[in-house]
Amino acid sequence: MELTSVLKFLENRNILVTGATGFLAKIFVEKILRVQPNVKKLYLLLRAKDNKAALQRFNTEAVAKNLFKLLREKYGANLNTFIREKATIIPGDITCENLGVKDPNLVEEMWREVDVIVNIAATTNFDERYDVALDLNTFGAIFVLDFAKKCSKLKVLLHVSTAFVSGEKAGLILETPYSMGETLNGTSGLDIDTEKKVMEETLKQLKAKGSSEQSITSAMKELGLERARKYGWPNTYVFTKAMGEMLLGNLKEDIPLVILRPTIITSTFQEPFPGWVEGIRTIDSLAVGYGKGRLTCFLGDPKAVIDVIPADMVVNAMIVSMMGHADERGSQIIYQVGSSVSNPIDFTSLQDYGLRYFREHPWINKDGKTVIVGKVTVLSTMDSFHRYMALHYLLPLKVLEIVNTTLCQYFQGKCLELHRKINFVMRLIDLYGPYLFFKGIFDDMNTEKLRREAKEAGIEMDVFNFDPKSINWEDYFMNTHVPGVVKYVFK
User: Fold this and answer.
1) Is residue 230 among the annotated active site residues?
2) CA 480 – CA 329 distance, rounded (Å)
3) Kind plus residue range of the DSSP H or E element containing 337
4) CA distance 54 to 332
5) Active-site position among 31, 41, 241, 252
6) Is 237 a catalytic residue?
7) φ and ψ at 392, to 5 degrees?
8) pTM of the full predicted structure?
9) What is the Cα–Cα distance from 33 to 15, expressed in whole angstroms?
10) Of the CATH numbers 3.40.50.720, 3.40.50.150, 2.60.120.200, 1.10.10.10, which one belongs to the domain with range 6-281+306-345+440-471?
11) 392 pLDDT exceeds 70?
12) Among 86, 84, 11, 81, which residue's Cα sits nearest to residue 41?
């Protein structure tokens, strides 16, 4: 690994980014444009029907966002001109050959010019349709790899995965690759081509029966969960990402490959400013539900370590790692970017921060009333959770429904509200259940080595900080992350 100035490495580079309007991708693009305006070209691939629609989508979903405010302040009315000079917005699709790029001249140009490919395009829904997740997370990665093999100047391919390809493993989870057909529960017979055939045959049968689109979607979601759990993964998302990693490692040939596995990604820590977030991401569902008064109990281990990492640190690790492994022909390295080893935070601390924040800054509901929050009852077993739900919610709901029927729907509003509370909690348990008692700790030895060597080499680590030890979690959650999430919800 040869480490030089990151800013110098980025100068005059041509970088292809897939999934360019995604959360991480936008932070990555903004960072490059802000810290190294002498980057030669960013080829930004996103889904759109044509060039005009692609440009409009990028402007609406990226440039117009508050994320780009520092660039707007710097360039003012010239920002759009600067972006046109530095970025080529491309309608495309990683589930297609040549990434779905229709213009053959542009394809040839990228094959000649691209130095670095950053594959961020993915679906992150835990219960995504199996056909959609396979196309994007598994086989999409291979279309990106095939494209990379045709790029004559390519120095490195960076693929963003997830640390949770580990499933429900306990203990220290190492930064090691998955071999083809490897499973988490020891069940033999995982064959990725067979998975594709099972998916295609199921889809064909559903269509032949004249199933509605809603029925097909439901069936394909169930199929994904069934196939994932057969081999030990808890959901479709991490299963299809794991298979994508397998294929990349097996088929990369002499392509220098970096696989980055972030843990739970939260709002920005420092850049372009603290607290920028988009979407309600994983633990944010709990914060919002709690602040709104919908979450009064939850299931999980109070002592469990919750591995979170701010988005800008993930992006900084991406940039430093792609520089560090440029031109290492045939190499493969995995970086787990998280905090559970070097700066762990537990569930109880998060609960405490949420309680304190929403007591100091209570949520105002749509009726203008202040929501008063109390301490959440944490249930440490599934049996205790079911007993709690039956006693505190299901039984009162049954009584209320009987009274409501007797009194000609007088309590219909209260019935609906209680239904919503129950459905909200049950949905969270269904989606995140496998992680509520998660006992894994994500080893980041490779990432720590990269940090240490970069610092020793004099890399601009003040610009590209990805050290979780620099985070004070109490200050971050109380003054940066939760306010950022609340701001996003109210925008």
Assistant:
1) no
2) 41
3) strand 332-337
4) 33
5) 241
6) yes
7) -95, -20
8) 0.91
9) 12
10) 3.40.50.720
11) no
12) 86
Do 21 and 279 form a contact (C-beta atoms < 8 A)? no
Q: What does the DSSP 8-state code read for residue 261? A: E
CA atoms 198, 204, 206, 212: torsion sign: positive
Q: What angle do CA 429, 433, 437 make, to 5 degrees?
A: 130
397 compared with 361, residue with greater pLDDT: 361
Q: Given the structure tokens 């400013």, which residue do they identify? A: 273
CA distances from 112 to 118, 144, 148, 159, 328 (A): 17, 16, 11, 21, 19
How many whole angstroms separate alpha carbon 280 and alpha carbon 286? Answer: 9
Check 178, 237, 393, 488 and give the catalytic one: 237
| Run of H or E including 87 | strand 87-91
Structure-token pair, residue 354:
């949420």
DSSP result, 210-225: T--HHHHHHHHHHHHH
- pLDDT per residue as tens digits for the range 407-461: 566 557 676 776 677 766 667 676 666 677 788 999 999 999 999 999 999 899 9
Tokens of 187: 């069940």
> What span, in angstroms and rounded, lies between the C-alpha atoms of 135 and 195?
11
